[in-house]
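hiii so um. not sure if this is the right channel but i have a protein structure encoded as tokens and i wanna go backwards to a sequence. like what aa goes where. can anyone help
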């Protein structure tokens, strides 16, 4: 049985007519999720259409007098506004007034309004993550809807399987948008497959995401995104539920593309309560510690206390984490650096050597080493470096008295570029083993940074 959303404060209304008797169902007695109520939907009808059919049935029985709900002023305020019918011509509207009107509406009301206004000229942007909630809400509206996704060619296998599962679950056909093959080929030939680790993600994202999206949106008059204010409070904290898109043009030209954000006011926990309660299919990467999901090389799992966006482009600063798709959110945003969040240092153990910039550079370029050593390239503000603090100090204690030294080098700030160019650093932390009597060094390949894994790595070269 499918369900539709309705405000939890709605009153009792006549829903079902059976024989000569009248069944009255209270919305308050139905299944609740967060502050929203989910009602059975019959025959694919929207909630509004379903109530209309039920009322008609009741009115058709002459011996029965239809019950009229008595609403308090507070309950009247919660009733959804009637959306205007979709039109084939231009829709005249005031975006700011519309945003103010819709600001307190539920995601279902916002979705219903958007689909009702634009019909086939609007589409849902689906990223293959928890934004599947948008498809569930659109499905519950019982209106026709379109879904598209950007296939960059570098998604996780789990994400591709998820696309297929979503298509089967909702009986829809996702519109796949691809980058220009020639542009991708040129970038790869010129800079290799992973240039973004050295010079940032923007160039690759421009080719694989932004330009294909721009081309897609030029055929639409409106689009729907899964952006939320709590995803990046610095840049999205004031995200409206509807706005003129600040970054892209639509079919009708510049500054005409209307962008809807039905989930703007929902929190991460509310989204997941909704997905769980409605038994919505989810990307299996979510069960592996991934919160925000993008391309495979640029996405990784996060630790329990980290913000969900920490798994995206983790080698960059927080104020670089808005994809060009959402750069319009960055207006008037104060530059922000994660270094400000952590004032101390890591790996403070008498057995751990602290290298200077000159010592680190000399170690990487030396022609012969008299002793083997392990060096951690780190940034004290990095949550992954912080999580490894106890294990790395324990490693130094275990190897005390052996012919292997343990050292650390702070590799952010002015040292970052040197470490990237000369020491193969791509992420924090990067752990390097420098063998005795060798000009080379070996990079620890795993993200398992517990004491046993680190100790086993070192001992394999002893």
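sure thing!! here u go:
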């Amino acid at each position: 049985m499918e369900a539709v959303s309705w405000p939890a404060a709605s009153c009792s209304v006549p829903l079902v007519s059976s024989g000569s008797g009248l069944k009255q169902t209270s919305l308050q007695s139905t299944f609740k999720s967060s502050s929203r109520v989910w009602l059975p939907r019959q025959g694919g009808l929207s909630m509004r259409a379903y109530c209309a059919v039920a009322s008609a049935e009741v009115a058709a029985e002459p011996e029965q007098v239809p019950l009229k709900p008595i609403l308090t002023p507070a309950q009247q305020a919660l009733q959804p506004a009637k959306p205007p019918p979709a039109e084939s011509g231009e829709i005249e509207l005031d975006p700011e007034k519309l945003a103010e009107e819709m600001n307190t509406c539920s995601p279902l009301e916002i979705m219903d309004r958007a689909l009702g206004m634009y019909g086939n000229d609007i589409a849902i942007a689906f990223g293959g993550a928890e934004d599947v909630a948008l498809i569930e809400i659109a499905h519950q509206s019982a209106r026709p809807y379109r879904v598209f996704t950007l296939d960059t060619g570098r998604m996780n296998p789990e994400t591709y399987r998820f696309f297929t599962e979503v298509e089967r679950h909702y009986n829809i056909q996702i519109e796949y948008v691809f980058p220009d093959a020639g542009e991708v080929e040129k970038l790869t030939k010129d800079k290799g497959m992973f240039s973004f680790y050295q010079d940032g993600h923007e160039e690759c994202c421009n080719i694989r995401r932004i330009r294909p999206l721009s081309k897609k949106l030029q055929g639409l008059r409106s689009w729907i995104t899964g952006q939320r204010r709590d995803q990046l409070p610095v840049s999205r904290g004031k995200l409206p539920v509807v706005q003129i898109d600040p970054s892209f043009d639509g079919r009708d030209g510049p500054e005409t593309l209307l962008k809807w954000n039905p989930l703007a006011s929902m929190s991460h926990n509310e989204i997941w309560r909704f997905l769980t309660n409605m038994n919505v299919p989810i990307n299996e990467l979510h069960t592996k510690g991934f919160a925000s999901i993008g391309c495979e090389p640029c996405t990784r799992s996060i630790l329990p206390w980290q913000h969900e966006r920490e798994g995206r482009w983790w080698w960059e600063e927080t104020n670089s984490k808005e994809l060009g798709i959402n750069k319009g959110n960055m207006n008037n945003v104060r530059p922000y650096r994660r270094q400000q969040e952590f004032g101390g240092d890591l790996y403070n153990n008498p057995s751990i050597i602290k290298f200077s910039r000159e010592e680190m550079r000399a170690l990487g370029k030396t022609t012969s080493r008299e002793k083997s050593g392990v060096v951690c390239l780190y940034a004290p503000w990095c949550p992954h470096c912080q999580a490894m603090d106890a294990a790395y100090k324990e490693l130094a204690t275990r190897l005390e008295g052996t012919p292997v030294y343990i050292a650390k080098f702070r590799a952010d700030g002015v040292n970052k570029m040197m470490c990237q160019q000369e020491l193969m650093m791509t992420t924090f932390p990067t752990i390097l083993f420098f063998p005795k009597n060798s000009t080379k060094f070996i990079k620890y390949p795993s993200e398992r940074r517990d004491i046993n894994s680190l100790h086993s790595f070192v001992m394999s070269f002893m």
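oh and The chain has a mean pLDDT of 79.
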